[in-house]
Amino acid sequence: MLWRQRMKLVVTTESIPPPSSLATSAVPPSPPQIPLLLHSQLLLSEPTQQNKIMLARSLLISTCISSALAFAPVNTVHRPTSSLSVAVDTSDIKNGLTVELDGEPYKVLNFSIMKQARGAAKTTIKFKNLKRGTTIENTYRSGEKFETAEITRKPSQYTYEDESGNYYFMDMESFEEVMVESKNVEDQKDWISEGMELDLIYFKGEVIEVRVPSPFVFEVVETEPNVKGNTSQGYTKPAVLSCGATISVPGFVEQGSMIKVDTEKGEYIERI
């Protein structure tokens, strides 16, 4: 009885739109609102206690459904991400950083810092030109500045390789086919397998690099069996992965095992 009295305070005919306005509304009601509107019309035609209770229940259900829909997760959408050009100096240099030199993209392969007894330290950097595939090595004074390359990263899926060694990918956003020359895949080709989702890196509208996710899980398709009783620490053996690459794995890893691999270093991480 107390529940019904409380519901009476919530439901009033002032909050119920007249039937004429419901019929001529430009915006159609959403599915959770349909029972509420039907019970509202019923209450106006027959304002009985039972109809008031039915309307209160519809109001409560409609509110719960609307709240659930508001917080429902949405499907993940693959969207390209862009990296704006930023000024960095020698202290910010790290392996894998992409910078722009003379209008072209270069990737830092490795670097070394030479400290001097007198004067500023010098940094020697080995770069790879991501358009031409060539490498250069330059030495810079401490504090010299660079501009990072303005690149766009697009999620894509590997499909196949043709007879000429060109690789084909499907853009996960536009579903268009993208052809990438072998010179831009060379560093990653050992890790690419059919159907793999990865990133294509664009510079001024041109694909300059393929980036495989790291870490990534592969199946061991070939390796020698573990020697029973071999408990020596640090014992490793070669293993061929489902992508075709060969890495060193601990002795306990067997054929058919799923392992997590650091694709940037080409190293075993753990067995799954």
Automatic annotation (TrEMBL):
Keyword Electron transport: no
Keywords, in A-Z order: Chloroplast, Cytoplasm, Elongation factor, Plastid, Protein biosynthesis
Domain called Translation elongation factor P/YeiP central: residue spans: 153-208
Gene Ontology cellular-component annotations: chloroplast; cytoplasm; cytosol
Localization of this protein: Cytoplasm; Plastid, Chloroplast
Pfam families recorded: EFP (PF01132), EFP_N (PF08207), Elong-fact-P_C (PF09285)
Domain Elongation factor P C-terminal per the UniProt entry, residue ranges: 216-271
Pathway(s) the chain acts in: Protein biosynthesis; polypeptide chain elongation
Coiled-coil regions listed in the entry: none
Gene3D superfamilies, alphabetized: 2.30.30.30, Nucleic acid-binding proteins
GO MF term list: translation elongation factor activity
GO biological process: peptide biosynthetic process
KW Protein biosynthesis (keyword) present: yes
HAMAP family in alphabetical order: EF_P
Family to which the UniProt record says this protein belongs: Belongs to the elongation factor P family.
Descriptive protein name: Elongation factor P
UniProt source species: Thalassiosira pseudonana
